[in-house]
Amino acid sequence: MLVEELNTEFQLLIGRAGLTWPTTAVAPAATVTISSNETLLIDTYQRALNPKTCTRILMGETTPRSLVGWMVKVVTLNNNWHQTQMMRGDHNSGPSKSSKNG
Questions:
Q1: Angle between the 51-58 and 67-88 helix axes, to the nearest 10 degrees?
Q2: How far apart are CA 98 and CA 78, in angstroms?
Q3: Apex CA 57: angle with CA 51 and CA 63, to 5°?
Q4: Per-domain residue ranges for the chain?
Q5: What pLDDT is recorded for position 19?
Q6: What region, left, alpha or beta, does residue 23 occupy, with left being phi > 0 and alpha being psi -120 to 50 degrees?
Q7: In terms of C-beta density within 10 A (0-12 exposed, 13-18 middle, 19 or more buried), how is residue 74 classed?
Q8: Model's pTM, two decimal places?
């Protein structure tokens, strides 16, 4: 599953489950207050990611503090990876399948 597909599917599943979409904006870690609902959604989203992608984000300089932040970070990493592969001329492999099942 592509990163964008994962994000769209995750958003749809939040709605189908009757959960509310988190309203936390992307902001510096020190200023974000996260609800328990959002914490659960972030944990579930992390489990849907490729373990290497999740680890890379967790070990980065700044870890997203909101679900939106996680989704943005995954898309950014994926885009950066593809750009690197384009520069190297390697188009066949990659993390565009960022879910475990993809």
A1: 110
A2: 8
A3: 135
A4: 34-89+96-102
A5: 83
A6: alpha
A7: buried
A8: 0.74
Buried b (16+ CB within 10 A) or exposed e, 39-66: eebbeebbebbbeebbebbeeeeeebbb
H helices of the chain, in order, are: 3-16, 36-48, 51-58, 67-88
Does the pLDDT at position 93 exceed 80? no
Q: Tens digits of per-residue pLDDT, 26-82?
A: 555 555 556 778 899 999 999 999 999 999 999 999 999 999 999 999 999 999 988
Look up residue 96 and give its amino acid. S
What are the residues whose beta carbons fall under 8 Å from the beta carbon of 60, sequence distance 6 or more? 73
Which residues have CB under 8 Å from 80's CB, separation 6+? none
